[in-house]
TrEMBL record:
Pfam families: BPD_transp_2. The lineage of its organism: Bacteria, Pseudomonadati, Pseudomonadota, Alphaproteobacteria, Hyphomicrobiales. InterPro entries: ABC_transp_permease. It is a multi-pass membrane protein. Keywords: Cell inner membrane, Cell membrane, Membrane, Transmembrane, Transmembrane helix, Transport. The keyword Transmembrane applies. This is Autoinducer 2 import system permease protein LsrD. It is found in: Cell membrane. The keyword Zinc-finger does not apply. The chain crosses the membrane at residues 22-41, 53-80, 100-121, 128-149, 169-191, 222-243, 279-299, 305-321.
Length: 328
């Protein structure tokens, strides 16, 4: 058969969208969980799963903004802890306090993100070091504020976002408020990343900072904005996690690395320039599904850390290889 007679790809074939492997991974993991625990296939099972993963999914989608810009934000877990501890201390069992505490915490989060962005953008401190220092500082503040032990109480008006379920819903039986929050904030973060000029500038800065600057992109402002978005989503994730799990002095511990891992599973490039909000949320679902499977298999907590570490090491190695291959 000659080359001329070989079938040529049609325009429709060429336009077939590429499916991010993370979506296939999520489906495969969910099916594996259902096989091992059939109750997971019931509405209560998968809705509670989504309820558990909401805080991580929102946190990861916000942290993606910093990752796409070419940085890291290790302070998000401590922001979550400060949000829960601070809110419980300020609430004093007053249900009406929720309406001013959450805006206050969002304001504090914005200031923290602004400081992170200024230190990274103008003082030229590597984001890993700057946000690590902020993480240690915020953990110290939360420890001093609480005296090292859980104090105060989160009123039901505060816990509403992480604990309350809407019941008697046709087909799905119940719908957690947390899942509604995930959809709302997920759409907002998707729009900001993929449908605005800011999102395009964010990708440009992460892909090649010097080229973006020469093209007229305000690199410093874009990077600072990314840190502010990350900090704000950390506060939102803290509100939801505190509502579900209650008050703890280390409630946000480890979430910073889980957020990075979720973004990596979703295909984000750790050295910047590429990332998808829906895929990152799917990455959070996949990570939580992996943890669920490990629990069903009876494997201990350290195994979760090993899996998480291996994913991060592999992602960094792959990103470095891709950059070298591209000649950057």
């Amino acid at each position: 058969m000659s080359a001329q007679s070989l079938p040529q790809p049609t325009a429709a074939t060429r336009r077939l969208p590429r499916i991010n492997p993370v979506y296939v991974l999520v489906v495969a993991l969910i099916l594996a969980i259902i096989v091992m625990n059939p109750a997971f296939g019931e509405p209560t099972g998968y809705m509670n799963f989504l309820k558990r993963v909401t805080a991580l999914a929102i946190l990861s989608a916000g942290a993606l903004y910093v990752i796409v810009s070419g940085g890291f934000d290790l302070s998000v877990g401590s922001i979550m802890t400060l949000t829960v501890i601070g809110s419980s201390m300020l609430a004093s069992n007053d249900p009406n306090s929720t309406y001013w505490i959450i805006p206050l915490m969002l304001g504090i989060g914005a200031v923290i993100g602004l400081i992170n962005g200024l230190v990274v953008s103008y003082l030229k401190v590597p984001s890993l070091i700057a946000t690590l220092g902020m993480m240690i500082t915020l953990n110290g503040v939360a420890f001093m504020w609480s005296g090292g032990a859980p104090r105060g109480y989160l009123p039901d008006t505060f816990r509403f976002f992480g604990r309350y379920n809407i019941t008697d819903i046709p087909v799905i039986s119940l719908l957690p408020i947390a899942v509604i929050c995930l959809v709302v904030f997920g759409v907002i973060l998707w729009w900001g990343m993929h449908r605005t000029n800011f999102g395009r500038m964010l990708h440009a800065v992460g892909d090649n900072q010097q080229a973006a600057r020469l093209a007229g992109v305000p690199v410093e402002r874009v990077r600072i904005s990314a840190f502010v978005v990350s900090a704000l989503t950390a506060v939102l994730a803290g509100v939801i996690l505190g509502g579900r799990a209650g008050v703890s002095v280390d409630i946000g511990s480890g979430f910073e690395l889980q957020a990075i891992t979720a973004a990596v599973i979703g295909g984000a490039q750790l050295l910047g320039g590429r990332g998808s909000v829906p895929a990152t949320i799917a990455g959070a679902l996949a990570l939580e599904a992996i943890f669920t499977l490990l629990n069903l298999l009876g494997l201990a907590q350290p195994v979760r850390l090993v899996v998480q570490g291996l994913i991060l090491i592999g992602a960094v190695a792959f990103a470095t290889y891709q950059r070298k291959r591209a000649g950057r």
